[in-house]
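Supplementary Methods. Inverse-folding protocol.

Structures were first reduced to a discrete structure-token string of length 312. This string, shown here, constituted the complete conditioning input.
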């Protein structure tokens, strides 16, 4: 019997980030070699260059919305989403042993953590200055350093154990139900098989700026009964006012309604980048609208063939 191949997955590190916690929920963890990277682009570059087989990166959270750096990197191409992971996130205020809450004047954390604890920080440490770090665990590691310029970090509680910091306050998030969505990105390949509860991600670039351009994109989904789970515009970087649309929808590219919507987009857009079809993390199966099942599309195609052959 051959031993199952090991895979190397880069992630937004260092050890102790929420991203690492998300990676550790993946199946077949015993075959995964996790590789911490300092930034999201570094983790994704490791995949592009072949140093890593995949990368786990944050893409969206229920409070702050999309993670711009991840959306922009994925829009740049050469990567595909193979899996999504949902992780509830809770934050702690971590400091070197002996530090009191009142001593916390300089705090460091990831921008999304700062945003999700904004109210708590304003209420409890109104004078504190927050400096942004590349990740929550990087902030915790910086606080732990001898002679650190920071007094505390907002990070996962577990990062406190790793960097030997005390928990000064726990569950400091403003919204107790906050969830972050992570994706596993790999090099492009044929998407995995349909599971019946899937999502598809893509980026649509409009052909030229004109009235109704976004409506045209939405129409391609709407008329085929494809529900969107996220849509946001991101600047293309080519000039002011130039945007692409980063979209997640329900369904798999192998389903007729999704495939047809993608073909429709291909006709009306300058470019469509397919970013993958993958199982949805919540496993939710959706009720398809009447007229949008694969059988409905097949039936319509058969009917058209008969019309064309004069057999209708
Ligand atoms: O910095 C981290 O720990 C991350 O993994 C990014 C992040 C930050 C805040 C909420 C969710 C993910």
């Amino acid at each position: 019997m051959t031993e199952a191949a090991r895979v190397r997955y880069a992630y937004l590190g260092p050890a102790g980030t929420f991203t690492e916690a998300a990676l550790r929920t993946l199946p077949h963890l015993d075959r995964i070699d996790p590789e911490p990277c300092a930034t999201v682009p570094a983790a994704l570059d490791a995949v592009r260059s072949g140093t890593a087989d995949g990368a786990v990166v944050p893409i969206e959270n229920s409070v702050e919305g999309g993670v711009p750096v991840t959306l922009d990197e994925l829009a740049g191409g050469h990567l595909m989403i193979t899996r999504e992971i949902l992780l509830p996130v809770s934050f702690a205020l971590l400091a070197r042993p002996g530090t009191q809450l009142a001593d916390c004047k300089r705090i460091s954390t990831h921008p999304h953590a700062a945003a999700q604890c904004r109210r708590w920080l304003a209420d409890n440490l109104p004078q504190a200055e927050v400096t942004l770090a590349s990740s929550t665990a990087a902030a915790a590691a910086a606080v732990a350093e001898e002679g650190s310029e920071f007094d505390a970090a907002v990070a996962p509680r577990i990062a406190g154990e790793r960097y030997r910091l005390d928990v000064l306050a726990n569950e400091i998030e403003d919204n107790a139900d906050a969830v972050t969505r992570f994706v596993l990105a790999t090099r492009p390949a044929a998407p995995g098989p349909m599971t019946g509860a899937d999502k598809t991600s893509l980026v649509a670039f409009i052909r030229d700026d004109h009235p109704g351009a976004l409506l045209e994109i939405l129409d391609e989904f709407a008329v085929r009964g494809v529900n969107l789970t996220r849509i946001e515009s991101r600047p293309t970087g080519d000039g002011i006012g130039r945007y692409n649309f980063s979209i997640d929808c329900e369904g798999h590219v192998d389903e007729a309604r999704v495939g047809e919507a993608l073909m429709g987009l291909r006709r009306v857009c300058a470019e469509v980048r397919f970013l993958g079809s993958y199982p949805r993390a919540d496993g939710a199966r959706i009720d398809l609208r009447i007229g949008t099942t694969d059988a409905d599309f097949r039936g319509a195609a058969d009917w058209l063939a008969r019309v064309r052959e004069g057999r209708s």
